[in-house]
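histidine kinase (Streptomyces noursei), 568 aa
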Amino acid sequence: MWTPGRVAGEVLLSLVFGLLAAAGEALGTGGTVRIVAVALAAALLSLLRRVLPAAVLLLTAIGSAEFGGLGPLVLVAAWSAGRRISGVGRAALTFATAYVLALGLWLLQVTSPALLFLAFAAPFLLVVLVVPGLISRYWSQRRTLADTLREYNAQLLRERAMIAGQARMRERQRIAQDMHDSLGHQLTLISVHAGALEVDRELTGRQREAVGVLREASVAAMHELREVVGLLRDGTENPRQGSASQALQAMGEEDAMASSRGVAGIEGLVAASRNAGTTVELRRSGEPRPLAPTADHAAYRVVQEGLTNAHKHAPGASIAIELRYEPDALVVEVVNAAAPGTADGQRSVVSGGQGLTGLGERTRLVGGMVHTGRTADGGFRLAGVLPYTPPEGGAPSCAAGGATATFVDPTHDFRQQNPAVAPGEGDLVIDGSGLPKELVRAMTKNKKRSGIAIGCGIAAAILVLLMVAGVLAALFLAGESDKATIDPKQYDAVKVGQSEAEVRARLPHGDSFLVNGLDKGAPPEPKGAKCLALMSTEAGSAWYKDPVFRFCFKDGRLIEKKSFEVRN
């Protein structure tokens, strides 16, 4: 469907070709009816060249032989036909037919003086009729090829994303299986042995209480392990929606369903630590406000990580936990004192070093941040700032600096490498904005080089043809001109009454195709005389008139010589 602007442009172009055709016919001897008819035909053919490219090309090429006003339209018709005629064979047949018919009609229409241009007719028609079609067809094929390459590359990108997603899913399932088989077994053993130990009659009340804490901790760890394993097994990633962030958000929301995994569950963490013999102080300040499920769960994880690190690295040290409800965010702070000097330095503490890293990622996804550092007395401080409202649009973001947080380093993130929308089934396959910059640069460079090479080859071939045709035409016309052309001085030097033999010796014999048709419109010849008509080397009084010198002989004498003009 054409836009209004394109319709207006086509109409304007048809009017231009109509005016050009009318002007071309007005320069001749065409009447008003002929001028109007040719102008209307040119305008109509211009409008139809996109719908009927082959028919318009043939009609324009044939009509240009009789109606010179259609000449400018030939170039545009050839360009449109080269792009729109389907099939190489059909296009070649159409252009060959148009070329042969136009050249043949030119030969039938011109009179003998105009045959001076015959040697240039073939290369001229080649340049005007065939070359625009070839260039247009090449340009159209190159654009089609480029679109096909973009489509193929987009398909490769989609397949690469799918393969990467499948590989991640397989790896998640493998990790889930390993966690279930190894950690699940060990936690189950801990829970069973702790349960058996708890009912041992030889234990004191204090020991039985500590064993109960161990059993509850192992059971809680089993529940959390099942949740993580379920997410790893069942989670799917959609590259269009930030897979890592969505997965972590879903995990946080699922965990937050249990009230014991949010701010309300911090009391349970504090109680468990106190039961283990650690001094823990919990302080609250400000007016409590509700948090988003993911932020609520992140607050729980900050306290849990702070207590875990304190138990690992500073056993026996006192711990202070503070929940401050600020105007725009909840500040969760866990501070432990320095480890007592009597701490057992021989105990082995297993630490993977990933707890604080994962905690920082979790808080960034909800729009917050984490701060860690040593205190003045040698202790350790862990603080988290968690906003009450999630980031805009509910999408997990707000990494420092405004960048979207992901589990992948930005230099290796597929979405960072391709700034456009991630490839998917709904993407436009010919949209080049989603292509890698290196591929776009290579395709552009190759297209430019191939276009220059082919264009130079076509131009060189046309130039060689024109040069060869020009040389042959010049040689041929030079020989023919010597047989049928004289200058005005030679005409003036001949006198009436001279002998025929003397006059013919001084003049060309006129045996050339150039003198054919010079009798059309000429004055009548004397009765019984034989006349010799020759062309003049000078131009006529008008571009469509040719000067002619005629010599008539009778009884061996020159009885008449005349100078006149004939229409070419």
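The radius of gyration is 48 Å. The first strand starts at residue 280 and ends at 285. ok done for today
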